[in-house]
Amino acid sequence: MGGAMIGRKFVGSRRLADQCGMIMVETMIALLILLFGLLGIAQVLAFSVVASKTYGRDATRATAFAHDKMEELMALAFSDTTTNVTVDPPYPSNGIGLTAGGSIAPDDPVNGYVDYLDAAGARTSAANAHYTRQWQIVDESATVKRIMVSVTSNKSFEYGEAPSTVLITQKTQ
Nearest Cα to 122, choosing from 112, 113, 133? Predict the structure, then answer.
């Protein structure tokens, strides 16, 4: 009886000796697979944080710039047809004031109803613009004008549309 146990013990220890390094190798392979998976997730997370921050910043600025133009247009007299609001400060002649016209379609800027802004919101040329600000004025009736202002970021967003904001209000006589 004692010899059989020794035989079994010997056989069992031999099996353990044969597999001694396998657990370590399997663990290392599993850790390597886990590491690559975590690195992939970390890259996606980092990209999404940066993209959200950039998009949010540009959307906020677009809204602020649209609000600035809306205030500028609302400050004009209802019958103003000469103030140039494409320059800073607005010039009291050689412009269009609140004359009906313009477009807020990003691909259809209308001269006199568009200005271009740098990253800080200062007016600049179209070639140096970070934002395009357009407005449209519609005569709803003899005493009501609808004013629409659109600001679009000119930055390229690979994974979606560039941020834009449209504000709409009415001005009465």
Answer: 133
Q: What's the CA gap between 35 and 168, in Å, rounded?
A: 51
DSSP 24-49: HHHHHHHHHHHHHHHHHHHHHHHHHH
- Residue 158: the pLDDT is 65
CA distance 59 to 67: 12
Domain boundaries, the chain: 33-172
Task: List CB contacts of 91: < 8 A, sequence separation 6 or more.
Answer: 83, 84
**Average model confidence (pLDDT) across the chain:** 85
Q: Read off the pLDDT of residues 90-131 as tens digits, 9 standing for 90 and up.
A: 888 888 999 999 999 888 899 999 999 999 999 999 999 999
Q: What is the DSSP string of 86-153?
A: TSSSPBSSSS-TT-SEE---TT---TTSEEEE-TTS-EE-GGG-SEEEEEEEEEEETTEEEEEEEEEE
pTM of the model: 0.70
Q: Residue 48: phi, psi to the nearest 5? A: -65, -35
CA distance 97 to 86: 10
Is 13 in a helix, a strand, or coil?
Answer: helix
